[in-house]
Amino acid sequence: MTALRRLGTAVDGNFQGPAAGGMVPPSPRLLAPNGSAPRSPAASRREEAAAASGGGGPGLAPLRPTPAKPPLGSGKIQKRAGGKPRKRAPLWQAALFVSVAIHAGLFVLHPYVNSAAPPHRHHHPQEPQACLTHPEAAGSDGGRRRATQEKAWAAGAPSTGKPAVTPESVINLDHGDPTMFEEFWRGTGAAAEIVIPGWQTMSYFSDVGNVCWFLEPGLDHEVRRLHRLVGNAAVDGYHVLVGTGSTQLFMAALYALSPPAAAPMSVVSTAPYYSSYPAVTDFLQSGLFRWAGDASSFTGDTYIELVCSPNNPDGTIREAVLSSASGVAVHDLAYYWPQYTAITKRADHDIMLFTVSKSTGHAGTRIGWALVKDRDVARKMTKFIELNTIGVSKDSQLRAATVLRAVSDAYELPAAGEEHRRLFDYGRRKMAERWSMLREAAAASGIFSLPDETSGYCNFTKDMASTNPAFAWLRCDREDVEDCASFLRGHKILTRSGSQFGADPRYVRVSMLDRDDAYDIFVKRLASLK
Amino acid sequence: MTALRRLGTAVDGNFQGPAAGGMVPPSPRLLAPNGSAPRSPAASRREEAAAASGGGGPGLAPLRPTPAKPPLGSGKIQKRAGGKPRKRAPLWQAALFVSVAIHAGLFVLHPYVNSAAPPHRHHHPQEPQACLTHPEAAGSDGGRRRATQEKAWAAGAPSTGKPAVTPESVINLDHGDPTMFEEFWRGTGAAAEIVIPGWQTMSYFSDVGNVCWFLEPGLDHEVRRLHRLVGNAAVDGYHVLVGTGSTQLFMAALYALSPPAAAPMSVVSTAPYYSSYPAVTDFLQSGLFRWAGDASSFTGDTYIELVCSPNNPDGTIREAVLSSASGVAVHDLAYYWPQYTAITKRADHDIMLFTVSKSTGHAGTRIGWALVKDRDVARKMTKFIELNTIGVSKDSQLRAATVLRAVSDAYELPAAGEEHRRLFDYGRRKMAERWSMLREAAAASGIFSLPDETSGYCNFTKDMASTNPAFAWLRCDREDVEDCASFLRGHKILTRSGSQFGADPRYVRVSMLDRDDAYDIFVKRLASLK
To answer: From A514, which residue of chain B is nearest by alpha-carbon distance?
Structure first.
């Protein structure tokens, strides 16, 4: 139980241990879209190579290979690197349910809000060494699975995300990992597939005439097109900036909006606020900006107010609560899409942030965008990204453009418009189903409460639509439970504590976007708690 | 000439203006690898769409479209967004040679080394509004070209980097944009092509059992394999970490190596040092670390020493110059590859940084990697990237893995090993040619000097190899020229001033990695200067 208690620090991010052993889906690299569509010569070559290696290569690799330098010329299908210091837990440990936790920064930051103590000092010692794993990994079957997966990786197979789950697994809904959407994209076939030849987009530069000189013009085009289609944000008169996820754009906005001053700019947001806001603001102890806590209790005139709407974690629709000539707002509209809420108006704030992670579910692609009115702010945000990462992956920009194009095409082009290809239809149906299941489970349990359901007229779908947030803001009403996250963790459900959002630890945030198998187990398990 | 003088601030990064009008290569999206190889259904669809749009779509779009919201349902091939606030320079301005400049941070930071003045205050006002353009863009031809390019972008074509050049163009060799390598990769066909279906790698997570939980295992595998092949760095006993370019990993290392302390950690490097080091260290005014200038004059005991070898800008082979129990070194080995220098030993430092930008030329992919011995340091670096960008583009990781695999395959697999597919053979031949041309040009001119040629026994190629740095560290010997960058700019050659590297402004850094056309014009122009 010590291991389980350590999960109290669970937040975003990192996973340690032999976790992947629990899951061996067929290598997606070896499956074509839809399971059967044609593939490129490169993909075919890889299949052949993987097949050819079956006899003596990585299939025979030990789970924890010993340091041994493979000879030159041993070919494309080499073993997973020998001597790699992965330090995976030995198999006997894998019989334990031990899970993760790393955004230690997030966890430990909350107590230091408005404190002079540098949060950085508290990050590192807090990082637990736990791991997420599965009972299946304990036996020889787990070993075989791991070996099979390593073989697939050595053959160039891409990763598949978190391990698959069984009814006995720890269910990790701590992160908003949007794998729910995989099912949808498996149904879109070649429309969302991208092919990148070896010589393409090798330059640092994408559009030398643009303020955001590393923005792929095709992505700029599709971002504007999609916003016009959905009607959720104004684009005329705005600059489009691309970032490595919206997190980088959030930092870029802080940098751009923090003028030279003796004291760092105060960064605030109304509680409950997204747990990353304080962590990302403070982790480098910048002299330019500093987390200053709950906007509703802030008393200064000069500030950056972060307005997340629909809000992470509780799904509420928000407006800025502060108003001052020397204050500015950054609107995080990551969840302002029809699958989550009614589109009631075309947002036209000075800085608006979006991301494919939540709009289409492509978190691994790490593409966010900002719509920015002011040219100078746009230029300074661009400068931040230039200094931080010298631009943003063009491969992912091109992929994001392709994915957004597929979304718009399904609504705008009759030939592409079969209903199963309409992302927002799929997403809204799916989210409504999940919320219905969750409300039933909470009712069956009797010890949990959820925010009331709200609805509004959606200008995109032209009908009344209920709100189906991407996170459930769940409250445990049992009087003897003061820490809901710990309580749920005791039942092998990982969530994020309300305390990390500047709120009551009787609340937790639960991701509603995981795969069906994990979500179904979660709901059943929740219903059984009394 | 005012515009030209403003170019004095030219450093890395940004380009403004209608530049792209000067170049209209065929859309690479519409060319298969090798110009004829097979393509995916998605690619074919895009070709058809692009062809179908020829009559009435973006081909008719005005160069500077007026604000007009396209109707819904206008389909996939829409015009470049109406009302977009690009503020491109009007065409008459395009007749001027006006170039770029943005890493203003880099430019202005140098004077503040070891100064208490926060460098941030000086970034923004210094950013020039200049643009890089071409005389060709001034006329109607330029307008047509821009319109054609916008049409291609609207159809999903990827960008093509900096505009093509003519003998009259401003030649921009300020950045190390490695487009020289495009030629090589056009010759590798499907071996380096990647196909990504819409549903792939959507999760935040790549390998939940790894310290670097967002690292694609296939990239880890290929990184280790390539280092074993080349023999330039030890990998056994090292963690592989991935970053959004090595710049992000550099910041991650500063974060990981700066312990809690009353004063920020001092960051130093021997002059001439890479101009980004001070800029990236100081732009957020972190309380954790602070640029402290030239390592050779540093007197403290506690520091992070940045060791770039071969060195950017001057190509010298370097070792750490400081030694102290409480000092640490970060080795930037971006250029330690056989095309640039003899591989004389297997580097085995505690932290070593690499990037595909310089090893294979894929700068737009934004993938760097670190080899890190210590597990705690690896974990803290991972934490930085988690807080900064929540991981690294999986699409680019998969592409980088594919590209590295193609490099290794060409040497290790007989079938793939035709000589034209051997990257390092190509790179060394090309670099040797260019250095020979440059030395001839400098000799013909009579007013420039270059570092002496050196050579060494290369363990990879098993022969003596001369050093062919990726940058030329060029000195102008004319007594009346105190600022070589300004002098060359007067002759429409953009370079980076020695002053930005902590060195004499009689020196400039010149990129040796641009495309043939630009390089050839540069060399001819240089030879003509007296």
So the answer is: B203
